[in-house]
Amino acid sequence: MGRFRKIIDHRKLSKEHQYRIAVLTSSRADYGIYLPLLRKLAQDNSFELRIIAFGTHLSRFHGYTVDQIVKDGYKIDHQVETVLASDSEQAIADSMALTMQKFSAIWSYEKSNYDLVFCLGDRYEMFAAVAAAVPFNIKFAHIHGGETTLGAIDNKFRHCLSLFADYHFTATKDYSEKVSSIIGSNNNVYNVGALSLENINDIDIYSKEAFQSVFGIDINKGSVLVTFHPETVSVEKNKEYVRELIAALDELDDQIIITMPNTDTMGNIMRKEYEHFIASKPNVIGIENFGTKGYFSCMKYVKYLVGNSSSGIIEAASFNKYVINIGDRQKGRTTSQNIIQVDPIKSQILEGCTLANTRGDYAGQNVYFSENPSKKIINVLKKI
Hints:
CATH class of the largest domain: Alpha Beta
CATH topology of the largest domain: Rossmann fold
Strand content: 15-25%
Structural class: alpha/beta
Radius of gyration: 20 Å
Helix content: 40-55%
CATH architecture of the largest domain: 3-Layer(aba) Sandwich
CATH superfamily of the largest domain: Glycogen Phosphorylase B
Number of strands: 13
Strand order of the largest sheet: 3-2-1-4-5-6-7
Shape: globular
């Protein structure tokens, strides 16, 4: 009760003219994307910024990354535990129900305290948090709407979030048109570019020596960065897919750096396969949480990327890296010419790795890049 009272007292002292912004963040991934916008909101006296942290941010198993938000100096209004131990289909559905139940109480209290709430992306937990707010008529702004990922159930959640939201900030012109089609209007739909790419200029990348000191990884060795998550549409095939990937990686002479999977359906099964592989091979390293600075630093120094994550689609081109994109998880997304598409089959993955090695650095454009997306978002907010 004391902490709850402290929040109320703090808001009584807030300046009346400030536009009160809350940001929903459920994982290290979306928090890293938000960072350029968070910095600008925090620095601008026109806004009062608050954070609502939930999902894997509050999971010890996933690194308890809410500590990073606190370390960065942002004020957290709510810390909401919503992650269950299991990752079965029922557990995911139960987690969604739990998230909606907990957020119904939050929105009941906060419905008149926030002028606008930001949500991002397509995760089931983000969908649940925002869906719980619909009866309260809370205004939302959605980042990264209009995209298509046919290999993930996230595709459906993303389009629902667009329907829930009042303002839309998309990464490409095509995605703006898709959002307009979904909501039946082009009002309040803005193509600003990919927010995460602003981090490349804003974040002081680790030197190779500092990277080794922080993570214990000698990045001077030829390395490959692997970020491969479950396909949540074809869940029954994920064990087969990850084994095909591991069989291909096992034949590489490079150092393999694997980022561990998120809380998708069957993520734990994939994690166990990784852990066995890591334990059996001295040149394979597993990382639970790089953080944005660590992940971008790793991306800068490795030879190329392997996996099926949005970071390979959106950010890798700006680091001049080729990406072996495996399977259908990202199918439907606009891609730059650095993407080497393969099926989750050992032989195809190895062919992709050979091709990336042969090509070296990618020298083309990033279709997601636009100057100062956070500034564009701020300018829109000031017109509201």
